[in-house]
Amino acid sequence: MKGTRPLDNAEIRKVSDAFDGIFTIRNRSLFMLGVSVGGRISELLALKVNDVWQNGKPVKDLLFDRNIVKGGEISRAVPVNTDGREAIENLIAWQTELYGNIKPTRPLFTSRNGQGSRTMTRKAAHDVLKRAFETAGLNGKLGTHSLRKSYAQRLYEQTNDIYAVQEMLGHKSVVTTQRYLGVNYASVRKASEAMSVYSEGDISMKTSPSVNEATDDVLLVELLRRGYDVARLLHKDNTEQPFQSEDEETESRFV
After folding, report:
1. How many domains does the chain have?
2. Which whole number is the average pLDDT over 149-156?
3. What is the pLDDT of residues 211-251, one digit of tens each?
4. CATH number of the domain within which 17 lies
5. Domain span at residue 49?
6. Could you say which of 49, 62, 90, 228 is the most buried, measured as most Cβ atoms within 10 Å of its Cβ?
């Protein structure tokens, strides 16, 4: 959804706790896997059990195959973190209990109808996420695409590498990736304080003694802080005084 915003870690935890009902595990797993691997909602809903569950355990790298990615993008493999692997384990256990078995070709996110043969629709995904956002008390424009943007924003904050984010999202152009990355106001606030000329730890013009009141040591410290070459200044004071003859000095006393 165009214009949706990402979630931070605290908001992700709130949303994760906001799901309820018989399909709680399915819905929470959809959300947690989405914010953990950055897949589009269409890509997540296209996954089958054997895409995420192999040799009796969750995959460490999730392959978004060429046949499910958007447009002309190529296949991409995304590492699955602890949150994502836990979501997969919970979902597999839930399917086993609900359907009595695990079928590799079964949709990972099944519909309420069809006894596991049908895939959850995009509208259903939108509705359950919308309810969770509201229950969690979140504000702003949120939607299914917030999962993908949350992954992008958090990955960038960890790596500071926009090209790594571009590759994990499967974007053709880094310009598209730049649009995904919103402003981290906590970081901006901290940086803004650091730029203050009167910030704590800085020798303030308001609190520094005047030139007439300051001791030599204080003046030297202030000059060093401002980037002056103190050694050169001292050398200049000692060696570059105008030459004055005894006659001129004597004469000056009577001027």
Report:
1. 1
2. 94
3. 444 455 555 555 555 555 555 555 544 444 433 333 333 33
4. 1.10.443.10
5. 9-195
6. 62
